[in-house]
Amino acid sequence: MRSHPDACPGAVELHAAADGGLARIRVPGGTLSAAQWDAVRLAAAELGNGSIELTSRANLQIRGLADGVELAERLRAAGLLPSWSHERIRNIVAAPLDDNQDLVDALDAALCADPELASLPGRFLVTVGAAVSGLGGDLGLAGDVLLLAGTDTGVRVSDPVDAVVTAARLFQSMRGPAWRLSEVDDGVRKITAHFGVSSGAAFTPVVTPVAPSPLTPGVPLGRLDASQLPGVAVRLTPWRSLVVPAGTDVTGLITDPASPWHGVSACTGRPGCAKSLSDVRADARAWLGTPHSRPVHWSGCARRCGRPAGEVIEFVATGDGYEEIR
């Protein structure tokens, strides 16, 4: 059981990393207008280290921020920070090729309107759509199915927004020090019972999607230069790729189906993370071209930050080379 609160960074309270302040910008559903994307790009260029990181939850990170920078106010003006009190819990990952942003926006507004939910853990996650239903969400929607901790317990809902808020309140009331619904003893069955489904119903784990759609250009190791894609509306995916308008200049992105970059990810590593035992990004680039049948993730320490969901080949730095985990 967890013995301390989670320390997920946000856009208001930054994380002190080895390379300066780290801000994580929640983007429910992953959708940014051209003006919002440009606001993030300019903030990264003018306040940070000039790059933007895509996370496995389809959020954004800016690194290298100095103390006292006015990032939060910039994001608020761009419509990316509608709630100061709830900003760390706005983790809603949506199937990026589905027409679901209106539902995402309604979920986000309802969660942010409930004062009780402001203290949910920063790891709390809601998924929307079948394509992302296996990403380990605490709560998920796929049609009329309400998923709980990544399982189909038989709960079917007619009002998805109310169902998610109700389930989030139940999780909050019973979680204690737990960060995730899966960590709460009998938590899934208690929520299932609240919705009137027999506690004896079979739980069906949801299969994790294997890879992003080839229609979404990938971002090598999830890091973009702040000068890329000016004036473009984007939709972020949890596979560190982007949905962009047809005709967009995607120079520098992964568009070749045969590219060795597909499925390769890494944590920040040195020099950005003080806990990292290696420059994992440089090591991943040196390794690139080695055949791999599954996604591959490089981690600078045993915390294995940023590891994608599902079956992954991992290289974990030990201080004396890498441990390969299959």
Automatic annotation (TrEMBL):
Residues 22-67 form the Nitrite/Sulfite reductase ferredoxin-like domain. GO terms for molecular function: 4 iron, 4 sulfur cluster binding; metal ion binding; oxidoreductase activity. SUPFAM superfamilies: Nitrite and sulphite reductase 4Fe-4S domain-like (SSF56014), Nitrite/Sulfite reductase N-terminal domain-like (SSF55124). This is Precorrin-3B synthase. Transmembrane segments: none annotated. Keywords: 4Fe-4S, Heme, Iron, Iron-sulfur, Metal-binding, Oxidoreductase. It comes from the Bacteria. Pfam families: NIR_SIR_ferr (PF03460). PANTHER family: BLR3264 PROTEIN, FERREDOXIN--NITRITE REDUCTASE, CHLOROPLASTIC.
